[in-house]
Amino acid sequence: MARPVRLLNIPDVTAAGQATWGQLYGSARALALTELAAGGDGPVLVIAPEPRSADRLRDEIAFFADDRLEVLLLPDSEALPYDAFSPHPDITSQRLRTLSRLPDLRNGVAIVALPTMMQRLPPVEWVLGSSLDLSVGQRLDSGAFRARLASGGYTAVSQVTEHGEFSLRGSLIDIYPMGSGRPYRLDLFDEDIDSLRTFDPETQRSGEELAEIRLLPGREFPFDAGAIKEFRRRFRAAFPGDLNRMSIYRDVSEGIAPGGFQDRCLTS
Hints:
Elements: H1 28-38, E1 44-48, H2 51-65, E2 70-74, H3 89-101, E3 108-113, H4 114-117, H5 124-129, E4 132-135, H6 142-151, E5 155-156, E6 165-169, E7 172-176, E8 184-189, E9 192-199, E10 206-210, E11 212-215, H7 225-238, H8 247-253, H9 261-267
Helix pairs in contact: 1-2
């Protein structure tokens, strides 16, 4: 496929890595950024003033980029630090997808709003190290797999409909991974993965057959025994008094992540 003709004259980038445009109206700014990224030899980071502008830039740049560039958006969590509720699972799913793709982004655009950029992010090692690749024919201990999903932040349900849920029904394992646009159904034969398929969460009907899939962690922070132990140590150092009377301390000590706990972990 022939490379599209440039529609804008892109100014030369200075030694300090700066380029300046003027009088960019409407979607011209997104077009200029697209052409800059397409002509460069590395990814471009776009910082928007607020989340709504970031969403709009993502849509406009994706339109102009077509299939030339990968366009990633790190959405705002839509939850303030110390709020008593956690981000919606769909938001966490998109954030984890972007965070997992950033280390491999070689030619594309990453978009983030300034308020979102000021929040702490999980280590790259956590996002990548907690991911799991599954393929047809792979041996899988369903009991150990269930325990790993639960410790990774996935919720066991009777029927999977949202990101971060999984269900075990005999030899079938349904899971809606974070970062995925569709849920998957694993069919086991003894302890081997016999088939991997997508399925419709509304009708529960199986769909396309796949050879392999990747599962991202269910949270942006670790919540294993080591993480809980470290949380307890830091909490005791920061807050005096009878900690057993503090609900968040009790819940975390028992392995329960209360509402808003994610933002407290990433801002503490």
